[in-house]
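C-alpha coordinates as discussed.
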Protein backbone atom coordinates (compact mmCIF):
# COMPACT_ATOMS: atom_id res chain seq x y z
CA UNK A 1 0.00 0.00 0.00
CA UNK A 2 1.79 3.08 -1.21
CA UNK A 3 -0.51 5.47 0.65
CA UNK A 4 1.72 4.91 3.66
CA UNK A 5 5.31 6.13 3.39
CA UNK A 6 8.21 3.66 3.61
CA UNK A 7 10.50 4.22 6.57
CA UNK A 8 13.87 4.27 4.83
CA UNK A 9 16.62 5.96 6.83
CA UNK A 10 19.02 8.38 5.20
CA UNK A 11 21.48 9.47 7.84
CA UNK A 12 19.62 10.38 11.01
CA UNK A 13 16.35 11.36 9.32
CA UNK A 14 13.80 9.01 7.74
CA UNK A 15 13.01 9.63 4.06
CA UNK A 16 9.31 10.45 3.77
CA UNK A 17 8.07 11.03 0.22
CA UNK A 18 5.38 13.67 -0.27
CA UNK A 19 1.90 12.13 -0.43
CA UNK A 20 0.18 12.29 -3.81
CA UNK A 21 -3.46 13.27 -4.17
CA UNK A 22 -5.88 14.85 -1.73
CA UNK A 23 -6.07 14.00 1.95
CA UNK A 24 -9.44 12.57 3.01
CA UNK A 25 -11.79 15.06 4.65
CA UNK A 26 -12.34 14.36 8.36
CA UNK A 27 -15.64 16.29 8.18
CA UNK A 28 -16.98 14.62 5.03
CA UNK A 29 -14.99 11.39 4.55
CA UNK A 30 -15.30 9.60 1.20
CA UNK A 31 -17.15 6.33 0.84
CA UNK A 32 -15.11 3.15 1.00
CA UNK A 33 -11.48 3.40 2.02
CA UNK A 34 -10.59 6.93 3.12
CA UNK A 35 -7.33 6.74 1.15
CA UNK A 36 -8.62 5.35 -2.17
CA UNK A 37 -8.21 8.71 -3.95
CA UNK A 38 -4.47 8.83 -3.19
CA UNK A 39 -3.53 5.15 -3.29
CA UNK A 40 -1.88 3.97 -6.52
CA UNK A 41 -3.05 0.41 -5.82
CA UNK A 42 -6.72 1.32 -5.32
CA UNK A 43 -9.30 -0.82 -7.10
CA UNK A 44 -13.03 -0.30 -7.70
CA UNK A 45 -13.94 -1.95 -4.38
CA UNK A 46 -11.82 0.61 -2.52
CA UNK A 47 -14.14 3.47 -3.48
CA UNK A 48 -17.31 1.65 -2.42
CA UNK A 49 -16.51 -0.70 0.49
CA UNK A 50 -14.66 0.26 3.65
CA UNK A 51 -11.98 -2.37 4.37
CA UNK A 52 -12.07 -4.29 7.65
CA UNK A 53 -9.15 -4.42 10.08
CA UNK A 54 -7.03 -7.56 9.79
CA UNK A 55 -4.17 -8.63 12.08
CA UNK A 56 -0.75 -8.50 10.38
CA UNK A 57 1.58 -9.07 13.30
CA UNK A 58 1.95 -8.87 17.02
CA UNK A 59 -0.46 -6.13 18.04
CA UNK A 60 -0.68 -4.65 14.52
CA UNK A 61 -3.67 -4.39 12.20
CA UNK A 62 -4.25 -3.08 8.68
CA UNK A 63 -7.39 -2.21 6.74
CA UNK A 64 -6.76 -2.67 3.01
CA UNK A 65 -8.50 -4.44 0.12
CA UNK A 66 -5.21 -4.65 -1.78
CA UNK A 67 -2.22 -6.89 -1.30
CA UNK A 68 -0.81 -4.95 1.66
CA UNK A 69 -1.99 -7.69 4.02
CA UNK A 70 0.18 -10.24 2.18
CA UNK A 71 3.34 -8.20 2.74
CA UNK A 72 3.24 -8.79 6.48
CA UNK A 73 2.47 -12.50 6.66
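Sequence:
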Amino acid sequence: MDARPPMVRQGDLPHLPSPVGESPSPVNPPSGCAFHARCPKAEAICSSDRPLLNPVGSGHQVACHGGFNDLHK
